[in-house]
User: Which sequence fits this backbone?
């Protein structure tokens, strides 16, 4: 499973043994680079960024850190090693050997799953492309680039599968992935949250904490797939994804840190006073959290989904940590609580577990988010302040499923439209919030210096010192 870096396309899949596939990918490569030039991080060409590159797929020590001249990052195809005698863990094929070719009857379904996942990867790069101009430090700029190049690699991971297993259709989908654009009204990206703007670094950190975490859960469900190349591909993507989540969580923690320091030092609580001190008040953080959380929850789709139950029964997409769940892994007679609104109340009723797999994955995701929010609250608690951030109720501000068209408050009360209109401005970021956060966005490039709204990190990337030059502009 060693990675061949001598080839034009680094890979650990013996690409040189399949000339047709190699040629197809080599003809996609310049189109990818064109896309990167047009839609990748703005103004980054020629910079030396201190980045990690995968040098193996071992869980330990897979990454090598060094300066990489943008955009000469070696995007490649890396699959986790195959597991000997792996069998399908769920659905109607449970117990059968995993597939190394696409089962004919599932071909179009599987292609759709891969394209939908693949589409999110370049979308986030597009959403984040302007952020380099306002990076709060070289450390953060480097992290942005790291996230961006790895999302680019995740696109490679999916395009490899499309080219290798789906023939001409797959190659066409590979082109389509470079043609859609985040937020474009004619050719939008497939999923809603990936067409939202990421206009500032608070949004970026919320996105990497919340929306990349959706990525983690989707990838984890695909890592269970009976189609082994997909499982192995997503398993390695998950190792990279962990850093993106770290960037988001630690980014918000550092913003909170700075805010609570100012609250203590100046003995102020009022948002406008804190804003005058150049930090982001906690109510504004809460509103951003509410927005990004609710938009990301929609990515899981409707609570009741025939698609999701088909994907599961077909053995294509499992549950989060399927192997750790103790049930029959077929789910035809298992139940799961389904939320519903009746008589102005949110209640749950037992429903088919097979029919509600989206809801289950969303609930697993929420538990993970809550753990992160708890760690943020520790920062506030340590400062001796009583304020806390909270995740809104999962029905808050939803556009898809049971809660779509309903008005649910962050604490889970069903409101009338009039109540919602009166109260929702305190729960979602306003124009003024966006303008204030935008006013803080100034690029800081001196090594070891940080914008005033964010604390330095606890430790450097790859244990580098605090004043390390993570990006050289040359
Ligand atoms: Fe990704
Ligand atoms: Fe990511």
Assistant:
């Amino acid at each position: 499973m060693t990675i061949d870096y001598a080839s034009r396309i680094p890979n650990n899949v013996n690409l040189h043994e399949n000339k047709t596939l190699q040629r197809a990918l080599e003809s996609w490569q310049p189109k990818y680079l064109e896309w990167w030039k047009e839609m990748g991080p703005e103004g980054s060409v020629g910079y030396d960024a201190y980045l990690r590159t995968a040098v193996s797929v071992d869980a330990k020590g897979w990454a090598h850190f060094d300066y990489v001249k943008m955009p000469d990052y070696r995007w490649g195809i890396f699959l986790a090693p195959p597991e000997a005698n792996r069998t399908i863990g769920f659905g109607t094929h449970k117990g059968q050997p995993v597939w190394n070719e696409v089962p004919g009857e599932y071909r179009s379904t599987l292609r759709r799953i891969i394209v939908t996942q693949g589409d999110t990867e370049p979308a986030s790069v597009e959403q984040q492309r302007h952020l380099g101009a306002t990076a709060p430090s070289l450390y953060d700029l480097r992290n942005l680039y790291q996230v961006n190049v790895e999302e680019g690699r995740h696109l490679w991971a999916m395009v490899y599968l499309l080219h290798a297993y789906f023939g001409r259709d797959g190659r066409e989908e590979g082109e389509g992935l470079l043609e859609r654009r985040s937020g474009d009204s004619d050719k939008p990206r497939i999923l809603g949250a990936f067409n939202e703007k990421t206009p500032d670094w608070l949004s970026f950190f919320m996105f990497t904490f919340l929306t990349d975490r959706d990525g983690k859960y989707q990838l984890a469900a695909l890592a269970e797939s009976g189609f082994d190349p997909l499982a192995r591909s997503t398993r390695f993507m998950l190792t990279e994804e962990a850093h993106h989540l770290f960037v988001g969580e630690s980014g918000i923690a550092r913003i909170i840190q700075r805010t609570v320091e100012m609250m203590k030092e100046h003995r102020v609580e009022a948002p406008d006073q804190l804003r005058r001190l150049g930090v982001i008040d906690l109510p504004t953080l809460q509103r951003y959290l509410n927005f990004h959380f609710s938009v990301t929850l929609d990515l899981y789709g409707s609570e009741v989904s025939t698609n999701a139950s088909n994907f599961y029964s077909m053995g294509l997409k499992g549950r989060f940590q399927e192997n750790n769940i103790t049930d029959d892994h077929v789910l035809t007679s298992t139940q799961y609580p389904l939320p519903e609104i009746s008589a102005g109340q949110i209640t749950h009723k037992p429903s088919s577990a097979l029919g509600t797999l989206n809801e289950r994955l969303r609930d697993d995701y929420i538990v993970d988010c809550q753990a992160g929010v708890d760690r943020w609250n520790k920062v506030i608690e340590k400062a001796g302040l009583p304020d806390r951030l909270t995740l809104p109720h999962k029905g808050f501000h939803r556009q898809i499923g049971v809660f779509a068209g309903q008005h649910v408050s962050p604490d889970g009360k069903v409101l009338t439209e009039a109540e919602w209109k009166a109260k929702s401005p305190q729960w979602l970021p306003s124009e003024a919030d966006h303008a204030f956060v935008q006013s803080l966005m100034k690029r800081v490039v001196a090594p070891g210096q940080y914008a005033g709204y964010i604390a330095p990190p606890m430790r450097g990337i790859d244990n580098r010192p605090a004043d390390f030059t993570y990006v050289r502009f040359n």
In short: The mean pLDDT is 97. The chain is about 45% helix and 5% strand. Residues 228-266 form the longest helix (39 residues). The longest strand covers residues 335-342.
